[in-house]
Structures are given as structure tokens and as C-alpha cells.
Structures
1.
Amino acid sequence: MTLSIDRTAPLHDRVRHFIPAAEWPVFADDIDAILTLKRQRNAVILAHNYQTPEIYHCVADLVGDSLALARLAQTTEADIIVLAGVHFMAETAKLLNPEKTVLIPDQEAGCSLAESITAEDVRGLRALHPGAPVVTYVNTSAAVKAESDICCTSGNARKVVESLGVKRVIMIPDEFLARNIAAETDVEIITWKGRCEVHERFTAADVRDVREAHPGVIVLAHPECPPEVVKEADFSGSTAVMSDFISSRKPPRVALLTECSMSDNIAVGNPEVEFVRPCNLCPHMKRITLKNIRQALEHNRHEVTIDPAIAGKARRAVERMLAI
Ligand code: 13P
Ligand code: SF4
């Protein structure tokens, strides 16, 4: 134990604002074991921006938004990919790496958006709106992607919609993302009734309250927030776009209307920025822990598999997005 505390001391330095020295022994043993297992097994850990700081800053090899994680999954040379994020992200990594072992540390790490729609629902929408291409948010199952023409993320949604060169698209399943994109483009957007359970809870009144309590604050909202929240905010973008905004512009005071770990993670690289934290936790992202990442590497679990009958079509929709 003392050895692992010594070996991981430089990592503790990165997260000392969140994890007091007295608590570090609880984390050090797992972190030390994960670093060794990664080397032994030629594994990489891809972590979403919503993972907790000890995962994001101490064991992840690559971090980013959903789009970056898909791109990084496409280029890694490792034999094993551990996806520290939710199930649809691991499925996307597997679609792009059918030969590799892709592990998700907790199979129950789902997503309210992915849960909101089935392949049959997509077929129903196509029948209702013949000829309109289906643009599907990556926050969906492989079966839903397989019914789609192309995927998108919050980082490229407008570009994807406009790349199709049509007047009308079906954009599923996030109603708010679709309405936020519709406000930025002339393309008519038909959507679905899915919601992110984390972002739907923010209100326009929250934005006004934050501004009143913290004068001068710059408010950034994720595009999964309701349109009236995005309208009240100063800027909206994917988690990576928000992170780039802060690193490049260094606003003195910001509020990120998104998942709670996001501010913690980017605060580490931006000590001069004051983060106001009116955040909501994603219970699915929080299912991933150092303990289950260690177990994933020790016992090869839980391996992501995709029905070959849908994998080919789902892969095409993701690859078409990545080609843009
Ligand atoms: P991005 O990281 O792509 O912005 O997505 C946010 C999200 O909610 C993923 O679950
Ligand atoms: Fe899904 Fe929202 Fe959680 Fe992201 S934050 S995984 S969109 S429920």
C-alpha cells in the first residue's frame, strides 16, 4: 500500500483539490493496479468528460466528448479498449474496432436518450415521413443506428444535418438537441420525444439566478438543455467545445450547465478560472469507478458484443459521420 501511495503521488497532485491527502490511500492501490494492468495487457482507457477526476486525470489515456472518443477509438493501436463512459459509447468503439476487445466496466451504465427509442420506432418514423433521411444521435443503441442514414454528436449535429443537402430531416432521439439545431439552420427538423435526464432539469430561471448571484459569470449550456436555457446562455456546445472555450478564452468566472464532473475536470487545467457549479449528476456515468475499471482489466469484463446482423449497417452510419 505504501508503495502504491508513493508511486501515485504525482497523480494525486493533479486532483488534490478534490481528494484530500487523508483519502488518497483509498484510491492509490486501484490506480497503481490499473496502470500496471494497462501495460501488461496493452490496454487503453478512453474516458468521457463526465467521468470523475480520479478516472479522468489519473488512469485515462484519452479523454473527450462523444465525437472525440469515437475518433480516438478508430485510431488506437491497443488490443483492449476500456470505455469509461456509458454503454452506447462502448458500442460505438466496438463498431469501429470489430477485431478488438472492448470492455465496459458496468453494463448497466445506460442513458435516458438511448432508452427512449427502438429500431421499430425509427421504422415507424420513416413510414410517417417518407424520403426524409434519419440523422441519429450517437446516444442510441447499435440497433437504432442500424436503421439510420447517418449519426451525429452534439459536436457536429448542424454540420451533419446540412451535409445532407435536403430540406427536411428526421433527427432522433433528443427533442431538445433537435430543436436547438433547428434554431441554427434552415433545414426542417422532425424529431422524437427523447430527453437527457441530466440536462432537461436545467431551466431558464436557473440561468437568471446564476447571473444574479455571480455577476459577470459566462454561462455555457450543453445543447441537450431545453431551448429556452440555451437561449439564455452565452454559449452552447458539446463538452469538448465548452472545454476549448474555457481553455482558449479563460473567462474569469463561468457556469457550465451540464454534468457535475465536467467543471471539476477542466478546473484542473484552468486554475485562474472560477467555476460556479449549478450542475446535475448523471447516475449512469457515475456507475463507472476505479474498482470496476480494475476488475474489467483483471477479468476481461464486460465484453461488448454486437449482433453481426446489425453491426454492418450501424457501422456505416457512424463511419459516414466520421467522414464529414
Ligand atoms: P458530448 O460529450 O458529446 O457533448 O455528450 C454529452 C453527453 O451527454 C454524453 O453522454
Ligand atoms: Fe445520457 Fe444525459 Fe447521462 Fe449523457 S448525461 S449519458 S445524455 S443521461
2.
Amino acid sequence: MQTEKEDEDDASPEEFFGLSDFTGSDSDQLSFSTGDRLLVHARTSSEWWWAELQGVFGYVPASFLHQGAEEDDASLEDPWQDEEYFGSYGTLRLHLEMLSDRSRTEAYRQVILNNSSSLRDKVLMDLGCGTGIISLFCARLAQPSVVYAVEASSMADYTRQLVKQNGCEAVVTVLQGRAEELDLPDKVDVLVSEWMGNCLLFEFMVESVLLARDRWLREGGVMWPSSAALTLVPCQAHSYYAEKMAFWERPYGLDFTPLQPLAQQEFFTKPKFSHIIQPDDCLSAPCDVISLDMYTLQVKDLEEIKGQFQFHMEKSGSFHGFTAWFTVHFESLETGGATVELNTGPNSEPTHWKQTLFMLDRPVSVRAGDSISGTILLSRNPVWRRHMTVTLQWSVNSSTEGTDNCQVETKSFPMWR
Ligand code: 6LC
């Protein structure tokens, strides 16, 4: 054992290369460019390593580095993981989940129905049409001249059959392929898509939508959804905490607390998808932290999206973490028509997205009147383009104790790499 430890300490630094440019945000961090050769002296944590670049030392984000100048795993594998991604949409499981989600599917149906007269003779694109439900709603509930139903997965074969089976083949044209490689005879008047992932952006299908907008939406055309927002709330999560963390305190009358650091690492490092937050577990009113305008949003804006929050506790309780969800809006094309909203939050019908829970390492007691302020940062993974890291930074300001106790905490949650 002793010799192994010594070997580790004496280990010479490992050579890594910059995968993309990184600009350090403080003097402890080392800035570098794509292709720079760095020497990693210590893998301090799973995310931050202590490294050297031309004699200068600092922390670097592990996800921005790769070993071996050319043959890195991302270049062997596709950074979009399209084979796996479109492979999974080639089976029924996800389509069943999406179609069974009534709030989601009904929201799109309502949009078409509310705008049916404005859609008359229009050219539409349904990007990522899956089984073609939105395109079929368009053909059945309105009279567009054509609907281009674009689908990259092998489901497109079946979608074509479904279009025929439902007598919509004169209007709906199914195009199998990636929207990025599409060729159309004309631009479209309306670009409709259901692109939202967990925590709004996960999967980054939104990039395909933005590229299609820039290439295929005519001047003055319509985007559905037209805008999107990410909402956050500080919350309690007693039962999840009890199930994954408090459990180790006294199972079968024994003390298993030495496993708690492991539990924290295993259960609280990544966010919990598919959380259902009870309105009662919200400690304050929620706050929109990020708003996206689907007309002006640019692909490059997706690399880093920042938001701010300030919450005022409405009740006392245990602050276990933050819960996030999103809302999208569909503008009306009819004069005086109402906007349609698809809200995936705790006060709306549950959807297949449910909510996303970000657990703190340890709960903090808060009292009514306290406030929690801070920032959220969504950083897209520089390599794995469908993934991102959510970094939360916050401080709790007590209403009863002095103002000198507001320590700033920070935690980064990879989703998934
Ligand atoms: C819905 C995703 C659907 O859109 C799924 O059927 C997938 O194969 C398709 N899709 C995704 N990206 C593209 C693209 N670039 N070109 C063509 N089809 C695409 C995702 N919905 C939720 N996550 N809810």
C-alpha cells in the first residue's frame, strides 16, 4: 500500500490537450485554447484539475481536456451521438411517452385549432415530427397548402403510413432525414416543433430548430413555440432525501453513516430527472431565470446561458435544493387571439418531462422571510453537444440573524457529461 501511495505522489504530470477554448473566470483558473498542451499535476476533483500551461499553474475544467492530440474518444464517437439518439426515436417507447402526455399533445392541438383560419394555404414545417401527430393535426384541423413533416429516425417510414392511413397524404409530405440536410422547393410560413428536453435545453434539439429557422423560415414567418422560459424554485425534498441520504443513519439499528459521502456522490451529483414537486414543497414563489425568444436566439447563444434569481421564503422548512421546469408560449396569428401556453410546472397538469431536482450536498434550514439569491448558468458541453452542466450559485440571507452570514455556495450538475 505504502509504495502505491508514494508512486501516486511522485507520478509525473499527465499530458492533455485543450478540446476547445477556455477562459478562466478568476485568477485561480488557467485560460487556454483549443489544441494547447497542458500538464495535469492533480485531478483535484472530478470536474477541476490542477494543471500547468507553459510554466503557469491553475485550475482547468476536466471536460475541456482530452488525452492524445488526434484520436480522442469524441472524434472516434460522434459528439452528437446521433446513432444512439435517432436510434432511440426509431422505437415506440419515447413516442408512446410523448403521445400519452396529454398536456403536451393537447397544447399543440389547441394551437392549430385556435389558428386554423390563419393557417389556410400556408406552408408549414413540422421539425422532428416523430409519428406525425402535429402534422396530422394541421392537415385535419386547418387547410395548409403543405406540411413538410421532417423526421430523421426510422420512424419516418411508419409516419408515412400513418399519414396515408388517415387520408392526409395530399397535404403532409414526410421527409426522412436530418433537418440540417433538408432540401425544400420553397421557404415555409410556419416552423412548428416540439424540441424541448429536460430542463428545457437537454438534447439541444433546439439547435436544429434554429438552423432550420435561419435557412427555411421566410421573412416574417412564425415560430411555434415562439418563446420559452426556464423557471426555478427553492424546495424541500424530504422523501427523496430520506430515501437516499437519511436512510444510512440507522438501517436495522446500525450506523451506516460512513456511506453518506458515497450516497451524496452517487445520488446528488447529477440532477434528478422525473421529479414531481408538490406545490407545498416550494419554499417561495418560483422565478423565471431564463427567457428565450425563438425569433432572435442564436446557436452561439446556447453555449452559455445565464440567469439570476431572488427568492423570498414564504415558509420555514428545509432547503434541500432547487427544482426547475419550463414553459413555452405559442403566439396567436389571429387578431386578438389568445396565446397558448405549455407549462410543465407543479401548478399545471403533469407532463412527461415532470420537473428536474437539483439537490444541495446538505439541507439548510430556512425561515419565512429569509431570502435566497444567486445565479444559474447552463454551460453546453464543448464536446458532447447534447449535454450541458447546470451551475447554481446562491446565498441564503437570514431575516433574523445579522447580514454577515450570507456565504456564497456553488454546485455544478452535469447533465449528463
Ligand atoms: C422530439 C424529437 C423528435 O424529433 C424525434 O422523433 C427525433 O428523431 C426528431 N429529431 C430530432 N432532431 C432532429 C433533426 N435534427 N432532424 C430531424 N428530426 C429530428 C424530442 N422531444 C422531446 N424531447 N420531448
